[in-house]
Amino acid sequence: MDFIFVSGDLSLDLACTVGHRRSARIDLLPSPADLARWTVAAGLLDAPPPATAADLRLAVELREAVYRLADAARTGATPDPADRDALNRAAAHPPVTVTLGEHGVAHGGDVRAALSSVARAAAELLGGPRAAFIRECEAAPCTRLYLDTSHRRARRWCDMRTCGNRAKAAAFRARHQT
Fold first, then answer.
1. Among 14, 16, 44, 49, which residue has the fewest nearby CB atoms (within 10 Å)?
2. Model's pTM, two decimal places?
């Protein structure tokens, strides 16, 4: 399955590597190789790094902590300090290195550097004013979180091409079934 990057924030994109959280969960990171592919697809690294089962456990821990922290920010719930600690542990590792070479920009590092970059993005998001713009897709069974940066803050779906289109098509069918 391909990765989807429609959340408007790198950390929310990691959190949304689990789809349909309240029904038939779809995990897009079932193996270390998938995690390595995600780091490239997300634009964090230029080449898939070696990834281990321990790296995957750390990624899943960070992913779930970011999801819960973002959901708490969205709903006004009190965040769990253990989630904040997990995020801060991941952010403490040196992030991805970015260098300018003869052929453009190069992104280097290992999986933990990529996770550190994601954790730092999450800290910036969740500790800043953009946290107020976190929404959850209204299309069932999607549970993807995204930043609503629309002019009137009235965005309802994570992505108009997928969830929005399906919801509008279903509403059209419902109106015309008589």
1. 49
2. 0.89
